[in-house]
Amino acid sequence: MENIALIESFSEFKDDKLIDRVMLMAILEEVFRSTLKKRFGSDDNFDIIINPDKGDLEIWRNRVVVADGEVEDENSEISLTEARRIEPDFEVGEDVSEEVKLIDLGRRSILALRQNLISKIHEHDNTNIYKQFKDLEGELYNAEVHHIRHRAIILLDDEGNEIIMPKDKQIPSDFFRKGENVRGIIESVELKGNKPAIIMSRTSPLFLEKLFESEIPEVFDGLITVKKVVRIPGEKAKVAVDSYDDRIDPVGACVGMKGSRIHGIVRELGNENIDVINFTNNLQLYITRALSPAKITSIKIDDENKTAEVMLKPEEVSKAIGRGGHNIRLAGQLTGYEIDVYREGVEEDVELTEFSDEIEDWIIAEFSKIGLDTAKSILEQDVEDLVRRTDLEEETIADVMRILREEFE
């Protein structure tokens, strides 16, 4: 079998779109030199000529002619008699170039060469894929659901690249079917062994920011800037926006007439409740806006400890805290301040931690999770509502309320 016939069996590689001619030649030469080293002990005296466009290959072995019986290194030296079989007028001391046919390397060497070539091509492809997706980190990306597993969804893009979306990167309400197109951001790309691991996320705040860029022209054009995004995926999000052009209303432009512009984003996120607020460097005003829809009476800010004491009318407290404590938690993340809520007109109240000798710490922690950390803040709540908002049993909540009432009787 001639060299050209063997090289034609590698034709699927030379047509690979990800590999240019120069790179393919380099990979082929590396693989063949590795095979020659194993077969002859060294490749120093071999010339390899490759033409991947034609699928042609030549290997030439260069040796020096020595007198018969004086050959010390068969790889670099050739006896005079053997040299004259190649060409009758060779003399001692001359250089002999002899073509090596691939078939002469043996079937095992050829099979090993082919496997090595496949491995090198895949390694090159994986490096290219890694670089390609590394540049796409933080960007929106579409892919199709290929396989659904318990802990992750495997996606394939148009080029057949595998993308993983773990369960914790999916919005709780997400439900996907095989063949369905999914949109998310490329959150991270890592090389595991020689294979790139591409992770997609739909829970990252950056996903929401990129959706704003994609769906709202003024954000895409840079007329409106998204200053910060915080979210509890699938539940609630707050987005602070700003504009350097006083003629543009950032919130109005993002929300649209009757919510028309933001509706598509809300739907994409499984009906996640999105509050869009105007960013400002006035911290008191910023915190006031962050706690929307609650109306605040007054604010006392401690810059050193990054805390804010907010006074509200009793009927505004539940609005400030929000369902499951989501509103006050996100407002704190958005502003960077820990926000404590106080009821206007309440002269006397007691911190819930003061009852730690009668109420277990884990129960106190459950109330704190939803923004209830004083006795009266709990007594003002409905028992059924507290059962729904916490992981506490009705009997436990009733017992806590009894203890708290006794404090004020």
UniProtKB/TrEMBL annotation:
Keywords tagged on the record: Cytoplasm, Elongation factor, Protein biosynthesis, RNA-binding, Transcription, Transcription antitermination, Transcription regulation, Transcription termination
Subcellular localization: Cytoplasm
Superkingdom per UniProt: Bacteria
Domain K Homology residues, every copy: 233-306, 307-384
Main location: cytoplasm
Gene3D superfamilies assigned: 3.30.300.20, Nucleic acid-binding proteins (2.40.50.140), NusA, N-terminal domain (3.30.1480.10)
Any single biological process term in GO: transcription antitermination
InterPro entries named among the record's database cross-references: KH_dom, KH_dom-like_a/b, KH_NusA_2nd, KH_sf_prok-type, NA-bd_OB-fold, NusA_N_sf, TF_NusA, TF_NusA_bacterial
GO molecular function: DNA-binding transcription factor activity; RNA binding; translation elongation factor activity
SMART domains: KH (SM00322)
General function of this protein: Participates in both transcription termination and antitermination.
Assembly information from the UniProt record: Monomer. Binds directly to the core enzyme of the DNA-dependent RNA polymerase and to nascent RNA.
UniProt record similarity statement: Belongs to the NusA family.
The name this protein goes by in its record: Transcription termination/antitermination protein NusA
Source organism (scientific name): Leeuwenhoekiella blandensis (strain CECT 7118 / CCUG 51940 / KCTC 22103 / MED217) (Flavobacterium sp. (strain MED217))
